[in-house]
Write a structure and sequence with these properties.
The complex is a heterodimer of chains A (187) and B (213). Helices cover 32% and strands 27% of the residues of chain A. By secondary structure, chain A is an alpha/beta fold. With 213 residues, chain B is mainly α. Chains A and B meet through β2, α2 and α3 of A and α8 and α13 of B. Chain B: This is Rho-GAP domain-containing protein.
Amino acid sequence: MREYKLVVLGSGGVGKSALTVQFVQGIFVEKYDPTIEDSYRKNVCEFISLQCELIRLLIVCLQEQFTAMRDLYMKNGQGFALVYSITAQSTFNDLQDLREQILRVKDTEDVPMILVGNKCDLEDERVVGKEQGQNFARQWSNCAFLESSAKSKINVNEIFYDLVRQINRKTPVEKKRAKKKSNCILL
Amino acid sequence: MQTVRTVDVVDCSFLFCFSKHSKAAVQIKEDMKWMAQLPMNKPSPATVTGGKKIFGVSLLELRDLGLVKDGVPVVVRSMVEYLEKHSLRLEGLFRVNGSIRTVDNLRQRFDGGEEVDLHQDADAFAVASLLKQFLRDLPEALIHPSIHNPLIQLYQANDVVSDLRKLLLQLPDIHYSLLHYLCHFLSQVEQEQAHNRMTATNLATVFGPNVFQ
């Protein structure tokens, strides 16, 4: 079974845990409990050339302000969801720094990543426009971008599956059919 | 500063919810051992005391520099007064981070000895983040490590109040007076939880790590 290590990052209160719990358990958490860090596992089926292969997602939610372990998570994570809330400008502005930090820790430009504008059900309270998100993502060498709602179940699964697809593209699954070794025997 | 001592220490007790509430969150999970293979990178070191800096300077040194008034660093007082005035009802106060750039800019200006007008140059989330940073940057945690274990034991036993008071009095005067000041302020924040959604447990979770380093 292949394991994917996904890390969800973002400012406090943007809905990192809500998105993850919605994805893993299919419920919306109403409570306003801050997480410092938490991890979840989910086994899912992924279709690779018509064959269903079981994969395991290990998802870590990390509050951006608790910095001590952050580099560690960045180093070990394979795919990153950078989450902001469309209702709070400050949660959006800082993601640039966060992305740069990830690229620095990973020491490469090519990191599976998705920018996520959460709480898109709260259209009335929107302060970050969808185009702003799109533009941001475009500047990030065409990073994937989605607006989501953990509450209304919009684009929740898509976030995590997109990351898995990106990881697969970057490090393709090893092909099963190994070449037959030619038996060359030297006498 | 002496008057501080008469205060009801129960005010502080909610800070210790932290140890119970996020025990699970703070320790590295079993299934996350794969993450713990690398040495931990400490966040950037606190500012050095050279010159008249404010962040990263011990409370005693701040007092010697004349930057403490009535047991509370002037900078803390100005931040708390700002938040009291504008932000007690703000949703996610101390949970939502302020912009990194704003916070950093404010810190540098305070360190450089500039007069900072928070009303003009900052927003509430930035000030809240700055306050937490001030506490994190203290060379010695506000609540000294030597009383961490007794505190946790006390919290697990039920009869908290009188012993808690005794224990907290072991803290240096200046730590005690700042802790008292903050707890008083945080209980004000907590009273507005219907608006700001920051219950005692929530506050303990986001505030605790800054005073228990």
